[in-house]
Amino acid sequence: MYSKESITGFPKDFLWGGATAANQIEGAWQVDGKGLTTAEVVRKAEDRRHGSMGDVNADTLQEAIADHSDVHYPKRRGVDFYHHYKEDIALFAEMGFKVFRLSIAWSRIFPTGLEENPNEAGLAFYDRVFDELDKYHIEPLVTLSHYEMPIELTKRYNGWLDREVIKAFNHYTETVFKRYKDRVKYWLTFNEINTSAWGFHETGAMDGDLSTQEQLQVRYQAVHHQFVASAIATKQLKEIAPNAKIGSMLARMQTYPATANPVDVQAAQVEDQKNLFYTDVQARGEYPEYMNRYFNENGIVINMSTDDEKLLKQYPVDFISFSYYMTNVTGVDGVEDGIGNMSLGGRNPYLKESEWGWQIDPIGLRVSLNVLWDRYRKPLFIVENGLGAVDELTADYKVHDDYRIDYLRLHIEQMKEAVIDGVDLMGYTMWAPLDIISFSTSEMSKRYGLIYVDQDDAGNGTLKRYKKDSFFWYQKVIESNGKILE
C-alpha cells in the first residue's frame, strides 16, 4: 500500500515575493549609456482593452526613434525605479519578501547588442540593486529578456528572425552570468516565450504587413532561435555557476472546451498544445510530435542548424515558471469573444472579469499547476499573478483595495490546494509589488501594485510611494507562510 506524509501547507522554504520588468519599472531610458529597446518604441494604446504591443512597422519605428520624449512611450519613464530602488526594496523587505523578480535591461549592458565590451555603468547599476537585496536577505530572480532587446538588433536583423541574434544574446548572457554568479541563484531566459506567437513585442521582428501564413513562419522561426539561445544560456550557466538554477517562463492560459461535445474537447486540447509546445521544447528538450501536423498544415518550415536538436536535448531548463491571469474557452461552433486585451479565446459565462475584460479564474490556477506538474515533473514557480484595477488615493493617502486582496487570496488558496495535491511549487511572485507601466497598454491607470505610485497616464505626479491596504495583508500572508489569508 502506498502512503506518504500528508502535506497541509506551503513548505518552510517557500519563496514569497513580487515581480517586475525593467521596461515597465526602471525609467532612466537615456541614463548611463543605456540604448533604446523594442519595448520603448511601442506607442501607448488608444483603447485600454486592446493592447498595442504588436503595432510596429518600419514607419512607426522610425517615428519612435526620432521622438526623443516619453509622451507617447511611457515605458521610457517607468516609475523611476532606477533612482528609487533603495526605497522600493526597503518596502519589499518590510512586506517580508523572500524573493524579488526583476529583469536586466539587455540594452543597459550592451546598448546596441553588438558591442564587444559591456557598458560598465549598466552592470554597476545591477550591482547596486543586488547589494540592496542582499542587505535584506532577498533572493533575486532575474529574467534575462523580458519583452525587450536593443532596437539596433531589430533594425539590422529584424530581431530574432535572424540567427545572428543568438550570438548577441549569448554574449550578453555570458557577461551577466560571470558578473553575478555569486549574487543570483535563480534565472529565467525569455519572459512568456509563447507570446512570440503574437509578434513584435517578444520576437523583435516586424511582421505586421505579412500574410497570416508568413507571420506564422516568421514567429516560429524566431522562437526556434530563442530556444537555441536558451539552451546555450543553460550550458553557460552550468559551467559558470553550477549551483544556480535556470527556468523557462510561460504565459499559461488553460483552455476549456465550450461544451462536453467531443469535438469541442478535442479543439480545446489542440489549443492547449499550442500553449504547452514551448515548455515541451524547453523542459523536455525536443519538439513534440503534434507540432509536425500543425507546421505541415500551415506551411511552416523551421530552419535548423546541425547541432540545434542536440543542444535542446542536452540543456533543458531546471524548473518551469509561468504567469497566470486567466483561462480561455474554445469550441468548433464559435464562442463569445473574450474582450480582455490578452485573452485570445472565448468568454466563460461562469467567470467574473476585471475592468479590462480579463476573466478571473482562481480554480484554473490549481488546474494549471496540476497539468504542468503531471506533464513535466519539474519544480514549478508562479512568477506573475495579479489584478489590474483603477485605484483611488484618498485624501489621507490610503488605498482601500479589498478587490485586490480578494483576488490574491482566492488564487493563493488554490495554490495551497495544488501543493496538497502534491505539486512541487517553489514560490510565488505576485505582479506587481508596486504600480508600474502596463505592458499591454502602456498606461498607468491599470494598477497592479501593493504600493501606490503617484504618477498619472501623462507622467505627472510626485512619484511618491504609498502603502495600500493590500500591502499590509500580503505582509501577514508572508509572515504566516500562507496560513493567514483573511
From TrEMBL:
Its EC number is 3.2.1.86. GO terms for molecular function: 6-phospho-beta-glucosidase activity. InterPro entries: GH, GH_1_N_CS, Glyco_hydro_1, Glyco_hydro_1_AS. Keywords: Glycosidase, Hydrolase. SUPFAM superfamilies: (Trans)glycosidases. This is Aryl-phospho-beta-D-glucosidase BglH. It comes from the Bacteria. One of its GO terms (cellular component) is cytosol. GO terms for biological process: carbohydrate catabolic process. It holds the Pfam family Glyco_hydro_1. Belongs to the glycosyl hydrolase 1 family. The keyword Nucleotide-binding does not apply. The active site is at E384 (nucleophile).
